[in-house]
Specification:
The chain is of the alpha+beta class. The chain has 11 helices and 18 strands. Strands 1-2-3-11-10-4 form a 6-stranded antiparallel sheet. Strands 5-6-7 form a 3-stranded antiparallel sheet. The protein binds adenosine-5'-diphosphate (ADP) and magnesium ion (MG).
Length: 404
């Protein structure tokens, strides 16, 4: 089922059931996005003027339960089990359902998002997961959790709740205007975000401008303060574990006990996940995804922000990457004349064919030099926003379902 149809079914189910709990009232929530895997809704946080977002992912293609009395039903508990090569979910205590390949993939994507955001909870470059309280048929006390399984027409779905980070989707922002110092700040914040993820052994696999939110800063007179915004990396649906994480103490357990299932978060070795034009060459040539691949994608994102065109329009372009092409990318970034050579070279290091030569520390160092030490003074001389830069022929390319 595609996400447009899923959204329609979700909203119809709510409209038809007047007794349905408000947490499922999707027909009355603002829909912010429909990606390849789920639908994002916005709702006000109770007792607060902030917004939280719910992302709802369909998981099973077939119904776990047929002839259910109501179109939306909460599920009391969900466990994951694997016997030999077969994967199962066990729901409501003892009923088992055998997952197909696609269903297991959907479960991985939905679970990775909430589990990995939980692991990074409290780190400033990512949205925080938010717990809400609700009552469920199987429990006499309210349940507090940041995620919940439920059935839509008998099919398993997961909803996860996270804060809405302030700002605007970077893809939309780049199509309008952007100050060079803000590009440096994006480089810095995302470089730090990748560093934090690397420390936690989490690979993102879909770093691109539409998965970044940037909050432009203004002073009290509404003058723009270049380089003072904050970037957030979002969309953790493609995240995977690079290594087994042993430090799980500060994770809270609720509702489902899938958090520790290493099996669910291990790399799907044969799959290529990501967005065409952003995937690192070694991954396209069959190597396992690593954090170095995220560094490559960050290079692609920064190149687009600076030049206004994609570094690689297709995966085929990436496959034929050579040192000559790398010099061209360098030249194009240099031609804009906004950045000092060291910063441009730091970005270019992210385009190294040898993954280990993609130097994140160098990028962070050069970005810091500009932002906090005034290196390459010409940037601060730019009085206003740079003129509109129309991204030539760039589409918001969507994340591919894995290619096998
Ligand atoms: N935590 C968040 N804070 C602010 N905006 C968000 C957040 N999560 C998602 N969005 C917005 O919703 C859009 C879709 O969310 P995303 O997680 O990328 O899902 P998908 O790509 O699967 O549709 C994003 O491009 C972004 O504009
Ligand atoms: Mg996305």
């Amino acid at each position: 089922m595609n996400t447009t149809l899923f959204r329609t079914k979700l909203e119809q189910a709510c409209a038809e059931d007047s007794l349905l709990d408000v947490r499922f009232a999707y027909d009355r929530k603002l829909c912010l996005g429909m990606g390849g895997y789920g639908v994002v809704y916005q709702e006000p946080q109770v007792d607060d003027d902030r917004f939280v977002l719910q992302k709802i992912n369909p998981i099973t293609v077939r119904a776990l339960k047929k002839d259910v009395s109501r179109r939306i039903l909460s599920v009391d508990s969900v466990k994951y089990d694997r016997v030999g090569k077969k994967s199962y979910v066990i729901f409501n205590g003892q009923e088992a359902y055998s997952l197909g390949k696609k269903e297991l993939h959907n479960l991985k994507v939905a679970m990775a998002e909430s589990t990995h955001l939980r692991l990074l909870q409290g780190v400033g470059y990512f949205p925080k997961m938010v717990e809400q309280e609700w009552f469920s048929e199987g429990y006499s006390d309210p349940v507090a959790s940041d995620r919940e399984f439920f059935l839509l027409d008998g099919k398993l779905c997961l909803r996860t709740i996270r804060e809405q980070v302030p700002g605007v989707n970077l893809f939309d922002l780049l199509g309008e205007w952007f100050h060079p110092l803000d590009i440096v700040k994006v480089a810095y914040d995302l470089g730090r975000a990748l560093q934090c993820m690397e420390g936690a052994g989490i690979i993102h696999r879909d770093v691109k401008s539409s998965n970044v939110v940037y909050n432009l800063r203004y002073d009290e007179k509404q003058n723009h303060c270049p380089g003072e915004g904050e970037a957030y990396l979002i969309d953790f649906g493609g995240t995977m574990r690079q290594k087994k994480i042993t430090d799980l103490e500060n994770i809270t357990y609720f509702w489902d006990d899938l958090t520790e299932c290493v099996d669910l978060f291990s790399l799907e070795k044969k799959d290529i996940f990501g967005t065409p034009g952003y995937i690192a060459p070694e991954v396209l040539f069959g190597s396992e995804a690593t954090s170095y691949g995220d560094r490559w994608s960050l290079g692609c994102l920064l190149y687009t922000a600076i030049v206004g065109d994609a570094a690689f329009h297709t995966n085929a372009d990436t496959r034929v990457f050579t040192d000559g092409r790398k010099s061209e990318l360098h030249e194009k970034m240099n031609e804009t004349n906004y950045f000092n050579l060291d910063f441009v070279e730091a970005i270019c290091s992210l385009f190294s064919v040898n993954p280990e030569e993609r130097n994140l520390n160098l990028l962070l160092f050069e970005a810091e030099e500009i932002l906090f030490c005034g290196k390459g003074g010409k940037l601060s001389d730019i009085p206003n926003m740079v003129p509109l830069r129309i991204l030539s022929g760039l589409n918001n390319v969507t994340t591919l379902r894995p290619m096998r």
